[in-house]
């Protein structure tokens, strides 16, 4: 790995080196879609990749660029046009996608991000791109880690931005500039005589990220470990082995963990239990640190009983720990003919009939799908939180297909968690996640 500078604890790459390393590691042939907002980081990423390909032409790699107009700022459409003109001048195909649809009143940043990734993934599919790259930097990484550690206990965790994330089981998003400093990217652009747009929201202190950035400005660029993901990836592997050894999934709605497994590898138990809780609770994130600590304390106690965390019942019995969705607060889902939706964050349901259906938590009538050895109380509870499809207005049975949905992984899956996620996906009868399009990293 070419290292241009090392500060205490953090490996820093220059933009050119980062681009070279990414292109080298990429599985070929590859069509790379660069997400370019027009800011310094993403303009720098596009240019670093394009320059590298110009000096070392590679017939198996093609570049395209895309700008998402979120429709939130008046200037955004003009900026997208300028990025388009800039790309045209360099001979790089460029696409603009606009976020139509309603904008929420609160959580606009998160909604914009969701929409952005969805639009980029749709575009990637339209133009047959194999991978999306975004220009998250070491500065973003520091800010994220600072914010997440401040939030530990409320669901936050100490790990930072992943260098690769699988979106919606569909396409990998890779971040080649994660070890680059913004200042170096700007110097690089300056050397090429290029300018960039400054997004005014980057200065707006109503956003936590902007405040964190200001706080961090006084600190030297240090303290971000080189291999943030390596420890987590190792833990993911241990947890996958633990899953094989001790856990059985029943009817995609409940699981039992052998009691002996609970006192096995503690870190792996904590990791796996958090994700099992997220999956059975239908949540993208595991319950918070404090809540999970309480659950772990409880499962390590000798006395049977029940606890609830994140909408999941932890039912500790003599033979094992049973997990299942609490049958409260499960919102119904209405699906028109041909529509598909996620119900309770746990099942992806498609209406393949020709009448609207309502999916409710009424349980399946079929007791046989649970093994006879399962405690009756557990079966009743798990059944009560299972989906039932009811055809509206007609007496006939609804025609639906139901596929388990793994909420912590099926939308955004970080590379660190891939091994565990694949094992869990198989245990739920689902296919493996798409392979990372990087051969060496
Ligand atoms: N409007 C946009 N069009 C295309 N790409 C964008 C746009 N906004 C952001 N990106 C891409 O995402 C990267 C990160 O942008 P930014 O830091 O603004 O997003 P974020 O919301 O903080 O990140 P995250 O996507 O992790 O939530 C940019 O470097 C760029 O590659």
Structural description of this entry:
- By secondary structure, the chain is of the alpha+beta class.
- It is built from 14 helices and 20 strands.
- It has helices at 15-25, 40-55, 76-89, 108-126, 138-150, 182-191, 208-217, 228-246, 259-262, 266-281, 289-300, 376-384, 407-410, 418-427, and strands spanning 5-7, 10-12, 30-35, 61-69, 94-98, 131-133, 164-167, 171-174, 247-250, 254-258, 305-309, 312-316, 320-325, 333-335, 340-343, 347-351, 357-361, 387-391, 400-404, 412-414.
- A 7-stranded mixed β-sheet has the order 5-4-3-6-8-7-20.
- A hairpin with a 3-residue loop joins strand 12 and strand 13.
- It is globular and about 70 Å long.
- Mean pLDDT is 89; it is low at 1-8.
- The chain binds adenosine-5'-triphosphate.
- Adenosine-5'-triphosphate (ATP) is lined by residues 35-37, 41-42, 66-68, 113, 116, 134-136, 140.
- Residues 31-214 form the tRNA(Ile)-lysidine/2-thiocytidine synthase N-terminal domain.
- Its EC number is 6.3.4.19.
- Its main location: cytoplasm.
Low-confidence stretches: 1-8
Cross-sheet strand order for the largest sheet: 5-4-3-6-8-7-20
- The percent range for helix content is 25-40%
Determine the number of helices (DSSP H or I, runs of at least 4 residues): 14
Keywords: ATP-binding, Cytoplasm, Ligase, Nucleotide-binding, tRNA processing
Binding site for ATP: 37-42
EC number: 6.3.4.19
Subcellular location: Cytoplasm
